[in-house]
Amino acid sequence: QVQLVESGGGLVQPGGSLRLSCTTSGSALDHHSIGWFRQAPGKEREGVSCINSNDGNTDYTDSVQSRFTIPRDNAKNTVYLQMNSLKPEDTAVYYCAARFTVQAMCQLRARWYDYWGQGTQVTVSS
Fold first, then answer.
1. Once rounded to an integer, what is the mean pLDDT over residues 72-79?
2. What is the pLDDT of residues 36-67, one digit of tens each?
């Protein structure tokens, strides 16, 4: 069983930065791929980024490419979402998710993941 806790959300002005944290408990990050998702009011949950714990490969949705990164600290059982050059359209509740896998892959599809955190609100507004 894996428990996930997100933190780091808040209010930021357009062009600003935030770093979200996803800390796991109950199981180490070994062999768990982690994904970050977001859901804005009235919209479907969208895959933002993911990282594979086996080889560190990452993936990003087009709208955040070159603005967001997904560093990982296995010693702290934490995966981050570093968000730079934030835009109002980035406003959403952000969730992290985990799936145990021995394959060198991760996905941006929500259904692929088995465990979810409770979410953290990110608001980008002036």
1. 89
2. 999 999 999 999 999 997 888 999 999 999 99
Mean per-residue pLDDT for 2-18? 96
Contact 54, 102 (CB under 8 A): yes
Note whether 96 and 115 are within 8 A (CB).
no
**CA-CA distance, 16 to 28, in Å (whole number)?**
32
Residue 32 confidence (pLDDT): 86
Please give the Cα distance from 5 to 97 (Å, whole number): 10
Residue type, 94: Y
Could you write out the three-class secondary structure of 31-72?
A: CEEEEEEEECCCCCCEEEEEECCCCCCEEECHHHCCCEECCE
- Report angle CA 71, 96, 28 to the nearest 5 degrees: 70
Q: Output the pLDDT for position 121.
A: 98
